[in-house]
């Protein structure tokens, strides 16, 4: 006698001796620990790989050391949280859904910040009237506000990083570091905060990328340089400070991108988002290159004006800077005679601002029409166009011998070569991932068409095959769900199938009164099936191979009676067929031969169903026999059984016809003498026909569902 065969109740093994119970419990704990170690190793492979790439081995050792100290001093660690707690709050799981959503949002915030920073360059402009350099005040205010908004979101992300663990909470539970309250203990929270504070790419790195360097340069340094007349130095200082912070900002975005991929394996989960991210990166690079090109173009124009000013009598270097270094659009009369004379200098204007033929602008010759342009939108869009064109064509630039210009062109061309190569390669990979399944489907259909032509199948069969393949593709998009789940570990596979199938299995009335253990085993063994319209699933008399539980669509169940008369009924969502397997599996003594089908099943429309094979039905009924003894389960099985329904319908029809005949003959007694009945031949023939139909109708076995 084995209690697990009759009732697989986990409580039963505890009824044995104390030694056996202890052995069984230890075995369960060993299996659980082995499973937890597998989970821990699976997470550690990606996370420790990321930590090695980041060079944070020392921080990890400190964390393990502090964790060990906490385990040795349980009273201290446990009492700390009861007393005051850690002001940072509990540790956040990096794989929590809302954390991953925030990481996606923050990635877009980083892209926005990379787009905002080059806009500071467009605040510099040259006045067309006075031929002097100034700062566009309103545009500078707008860009500064956008920069402060992105910095505020960066600060919020830094606050989250103080509480963000490098490891998932599942790994901590597997290692036994949880204190049993569903959250990490306070010492872990302190360790996480200190590790972020001491990491090489932690707090101080994130703080550096949000320092207001462009704001300080634009609002403090540039006005001071303009007052001194150092117009060409303005662009040099601005460019150096910009690159000093912009390049680490790019590196931070790349690190965030890699961390998101290491945590979840994907970022947004769709191929089109991958293409969009690559296009966004390409446009941001074009925008940054175009902004630098605009700034260097202003420097070249300021250099030209400086040369003309030196050659003009009475012109000082301060004349090249406007009287109002930060200009807000207010019109005021220029009373300085020197500035008026400089603004009317036609030679300097024609040489530096009206044409690029009189001065060697080199690669910046197209900036001549921008530096004095009052349209802010044109100032932004045209450099982006230049950046896209330059990064895409790898050349067609006429450069001077100026070393800064040559270096700039070399960097732009090299960057364009790398970006275009990466963009084309990534888009090719993404498009291949999108179209590979469709191409595989087309190849499979070509092979199927060749096979059908080779075998000379009729057109009706060919059309049925085509319809089935199309509907299967429309339902699953070429994904073999069974193959994907089959390769997973057993525990994970059971959990996934339980999650996917539980709600649909519960829709079957036969399973509504079963416990979770039985439902879990049923979910682990059911298979999703799709049938096209007009498909014959089973024929009457054939061995029953499986039980079908209808999820969507309708089936027609028909039985042939005497003289070719058919009895039909329709099965819809919630109904099932193949109930002959239940009585076959539960009958004693057991017979190996499969029971014959009592009806023919034909699909009335495209139908989705769950299939439970005969071996699986046998397994469930043998190991969970106690469930099918339940009266509610037996009543549900009889009520939804097509065989019992058909027999009941025939019996009700016969009873109703007998009642109608009794009303016709106005008789109060059902038993009539033979002589009057023989005189009414029609009634006798009808009654004989009715009794014949009743006796020949396929009434289910009396032992069915009497378990």
TrEMBL record:
It comes from Davidia involucrata (Dove tree). PROSITE patterns: CNMP_BINDING_3. Residues 1-74 are annotated as: Disordered. Keywords: Ion channel, Ion transport, Ligand-gated ion channel, Membrane, Transmembrane, Transmembrane helix, Transport. InterPro entries: cNMP-bd_dom, cNMP-bd_dom_sf, RmlC-like_jellyroll. It is a multi-pass membrane protein. Belongs to the cyclic nucleotide-gated cation channel (TC 1.A.1.5) family. It is found in: Endomembrane system. Residues 45-64 have a biased composition (Acidic residues). Residues 510-620 form the Cyclic nucleotide-binding domain. The chain crosses the membrane at residues 105-126, 138-159, 203-226, 232-251, 263-285, 406-431. This is Putative cyclic nucleotide-gated ion channel 4.
